[in-house]
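Thread: Newbie trying to understand structure tokens

Hi all, I'm a second-year student working on a class project, and my supervisor (Dr. K.) asked me to get a predicted structure for one chain before our next meeting. I've only ever worked with sequences, so writing a 3D structure as a token string is new to me. If someone could post the tokens and maybe explain what I'm looking at, I'd be very grateful. Here's the chain:
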Amino acid sequence: MILPARISLPRLGLVLALSISPLAVAAQTAPEEAATRCVEMAGPPDAGVPISPEAQDAARAALQEAAPFCEQAMADGGAAPEVLFHLGVIRQAAGDHDAAIAAFEAAAEAGLATAETKLGDYHLFGIGPLGRDAETAAGHFRAGAEGGDPAAQMTLGLLHRLGAGVPRDAGRMVALMREAADAGYHFAQFRLGQTYLTGEGVPGGQDAALGIPDREAAARYLSMAAEQGNIEAVLELARLYGDGDGSGGGDPAQQLRWTERAAEAGLPDAIAALGFLYERGRGAEADPERAARLYVEALETGDVSMDDLRGQLGGSTPRWDRDTAIAFQQILQERGLYAGAIDGVIGPMSRAAARALND
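---
Reply by user tm_fold:
Sure, no problem. This is what the structure looks like when written as tokens:
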């Protein structure tokens, strides 16, 4: 073998190692070590709802990287339940539901609570070869919940809300949701917060024995979810603190805080809402230039119309603040969209120019 002059012998080993595919590396790994790498790379088994599309993509990429090692871990005919769980997820993603169910069943038999949750999902939604069976699903979720899996607790709680496969029981629903929420499951924190806020799932929307409604409890659980990155909880908090009858008496500073978080996540409606807060000076000193820039940014997404750009006070949209309107017209003029007077009057010409931002 003739080596290029620029590659030294010590470096050759590194070059060859880097050229070996993960599949080849896994094939040369002992099953016990492969099992360890499978779980390290794929992470702990998790049957819950991903907190964001980005988190879902990251989990999918990690599992794809771990897949060869998870497969190799089965080479000696046995594997830890965590490996079986990851293999089940891999098979499910590939559409091989028979193999996925077999892997989840083996993991569940070995005592893995998250595998019970996945089996519950299969029966609840009738995935692959299985028909919908709420009672069987509830049995798996119950086993998962007793094993401490927050996703199983949360789903079993929702089944008690609906009376699907289990008796309708608002008290049991709240108790299970609280267990999952207190364990740190963002989706349970969000849904429990909604329940405390609106009485969702509780007959009549209120129950003194359950302490529902309770806006302070709602704000607490929604904040838990929002701090983890649950964007629905962020939006709910922005609405809650914008309500004069809400927890904190319509706290402007908190409304601004959570609206900013939603805007930072790139949500068009939140960007527009943040502009409105700066226009009105709610939660911070009024900033006409910033408000105008945010309005333009929201319109440029194409998902916010000029008619829906600005918020409402007392059930109606207030007149434009003159300084904000002037700043808005100036931006439109700089973009070559507006040739009218910079007079702070958002009339037909200004609105027509603004609509061009949607294109």
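A couple of things are worth pointing out once you decode it. Confidence is low (pLDDT under 50) at residues 1-21. Residues 266-359 form one domain. Feel free to ask follow-ups in this thread.
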